[in-house]
Specification:
The complex is a heterodimer of chains A (264) and B (226).
Chain A (H helix, E strand, L loop, with lengths): L2 E6 L7 H14 L4 E5 L7 H4 L10 H5 L5 H4 L1 E2 L6 E4 L12 H14 L2 E5 L6 H8 L3 E6 L3 H14 L8 E7 L1 H5 L6 H8 L2 E7 L2 H8 L11 H13 L15 H9 L3
Parallel strand pairs in A: 1-5, 1-6, 2-4, 2-5, 6-7, 7-8
Antiparallel strand pairs in A: 3-4
Helix pairs in contact in A: 1-11, 5-6
Chain B lengths: L5 E6 L2 E6 L5 H14 L9 E6 L7 H12 L4 E7 L5 H11 L1 E5 L7 E4 L2 E5 L7 E4 L3 E7 L2 E4 L8 E7 L3 E4 L2 E4 L8 E9 L4 E6 H7 L5 H8 L1
Parallel strand pairs in B: 2-3, 3-4, 5-7, 6-8, 7-9, 8-10, 9-11, 10-12
Antiparallel strand pairs in B: 1-2, 11-14, 12-13, 14-15
Classes of the chains: A alpha/beta (264), B alpha/beta (226).
Bound molecules: adenosine-5'-diphosphate and magnesium ion (MG).
Keywords (chain B): Cell cycle, Cell division, Septation
Protein name (chain B): Probable septum site-determining protein MinC
Family (chain B): Belongs to the MinC family.
């Protein structure tokens, strides 16, 4: 019996879809059977990030409206046999999804998959309700900006009213130099305000954008900062205790000493 | 006349009328009118404030209005207050409600409002965008980063205290103060209350509060103020 995890944020553009694609990829790399569900009706893009857009025949609304079987709508990933995507509908109207329909569908998927990752639309309306309906757990994504943290806090408040476990936090798009200058909220301050468990932090990295443009999530690459970060998060989801990655890993000990001594 | 229903006492602050609490209300009104007309104050004397003590008598709002009306007919008298030793059970329950301390243990997150009748003791934070409201005092054992509104029914004697005071806004009764526009870290163990001389909220260290004013709950305040 699998586990359904919703990935949500309140605010748009903070990295929900990127996180879903990369955690799906990372869990698949760890030999888990994973199904990704895109619930962002009308604004689907999980399929694009995964490079599966051209394979879509049926979508989630077709399943809910019983125009096709669940199995028919699931798309197998190019790279992994154990990774599947249930795409969002691009044209149907948003009211086509219902919380009850989602629950049933996810219960069915839980029979076959270890993890079901649900990519949530922005906002706190019906789309959010639907995405959360069938979830057992939640991951809240935020960036180190006030407005994003504010919305994450709002979402956490709403999630606390659902019958799911206390959500976990991913802080995305951290920019080292801004953090050092105090131009971004510090990780500690964010965790203190939101007071939920930190699952991981991901650097802001141009490679992430390049990778999604190629339809291949960054986590698939062996050695970028972001891919290591996502894979670490996946391992923490599996229950391993992996220490937080040092974002400054490019700056070694000697660099710091040089800096301290005034060399550049 | 055998027994006097109305006793008049002059004090430094004006007149005190002590009214009998066993006779019929009509008889009391009648005598009050007679006594006041008999003691009518002359031409250009200043206004005199009157405190009315009605002992263990309960008066309805209508009866209270009648008392005020009777006294007001004497042009030089202003009724300061009418005090009674008794209140209705219903009122007593309301006082009790408003003087209880409500303990909550949670984080009040963005978009959430926690509202209580009485004093609020919150063990937890109020995050930016969150709001706590109480008819009495507010004590936050945690970080106050959102909005706190004490004395929401108009009680200006209430205070707001927090382990870490970093609010976006404080409100006490109708008085509002907001945080400075630049970012602040917040002040540990601080409280805010209304400085009555300026009708503004002022901040002070919690440790100093005991020297400047006492925190009364609604019940104590009512019993002492009548
Ligand atoms: N860690 C990152 N570094 C750089 N760009 C990122 C990162 N995470 C997300 N992005 C970019 O930010 C944009 C929004 O991300 P997306 O995952 O679509 O957000 P959401 O699904 O929350 O709306 C995308 O262009 C994505 O490539
Ligand atoms: Mg998205």
């Amino acid at each position: 019996m699998g586990e359904a995890i919703v990935i949500t944020s309140g605010k748009g553009g903070v990295g929900k879809t990127t996180t879903a694609a990369n955690l799906g990829t990372s869990l698949a790399l760890l030999d888990k059977k994973v199904c990704l569900i895109d619930t962002d009706i009308g604004l689907r893009n999980l399929d694009v990030v995964l490079g599966l857009e051209n394979r879509i025949i049926y979508d989630i609304v077709d399943v809910i409206q019983e125009k096709c079987k669940l199995q028919q709508a699931l798309i197998k990933d190019k790279r992994f046999d154990c990774l599947y995507l249930l795409p969002a509908a691009q044209t149907s109207d948003k009211t086509a999804l219902t919380a009850e329909g989602m629950k049933q569908m996810i219960d069915e998927l839980k029979q076959d998959y270890d993890y079901i990752l649900i990519d949530c639309p922005a906002g706190i309306e019906q789309g959010y309700q639907n995405a959360v309906a069938g979830a057992d757990k939640a991951i809240v994504v935020t960036t180190p900006e006030k407005s994003s943290v504010r919305d994450a806090d709002r979402i956490i408040g709403l999630l606390e009213q659902e019958e799911i476990e206390p959500p976990h936090l991913v802080i995305n798009r951290i920019r080292n130099h801004m953090m050092e200058n105090g131009d971004m909220l510090a990780i500690d301050d964010i965790v203190q305000i939101l007071s939920i468990e930190l699952l991981g932090i991901v650097a802001d990295d141009d490679e992430v954008i390049k990778a999604s443009n190629h339809g291949e999530p960054i986590a698939f690459q062996p050695n970028t900062r972001a891919s290591i970060a996502y894979r670490n998060i996946a391992r923490r989801i599996l229950g391993e205790s992996v220490p937080l990655m040092n974002l400054e890993q490019k700056e070694g000990f000697f660099d710091k000493v040089k800096k301290a001594l005034g060399f550049r | 006349m055998t027994k006097q229903f109305v006793t008049i006492k002059g004090t430094r602050d004006g007149l005190t009328l002590i009214l009998d609490d066993t006779c019929a209300f009509e008889d009391l009104l009648g005598e009050l009118e007679r006594v006041l007309t008999a003691n009518d104050i002359e031409g250009d004397e200043p206004m005199v404030t009157v405190t009315v003590k009605i002992g263990n008598r309960y008066v309805t709002q209508k009866q209270e209005d009648q008392l005020r009306e009777t006294i007001r007919k004497q042009k030089k008298l202003v009724v300061e207050e009418i005090t009674s030793n008794v209140i209705l059970k219903e009122k007593a329950l309301q006082w009790k409600e408003e003087s209880e301390v409500r303990l909550h243990q949670k984080i009040v997150r963005s978009g959430q409002v926690l509202e209580v009748t009485g004093d609020l003791l919150l063990v937890g934070d109020v995050n930016p965008g969150g709001k706590v409201v109480a008819s009495g005092n507010i004590f936050v054992m945690g970080n106050l980063r959102g909005i706190a509104h004490a004395g929401v029914k108009g009680n200006k004697d209430t205070i707001i205290a927090a382990s870490l005071m970093a609010p976006s806004q404080l409100r006490i009764a109708e008085v509002i103060s907001r945080s400075p526009d630049h970012d602040t870290e917040g002040v540990p163990m601080e409280c805010g209350y209304i400085d009555t001389s300026k009708d503004q909220i002022v901040m002070d260290q919690l440790a100093r509060l005991a020297k400047t004013r006492s925190i009364m709950n609604a019940f104590e305040r009512r019993v002492s103020h009548g």
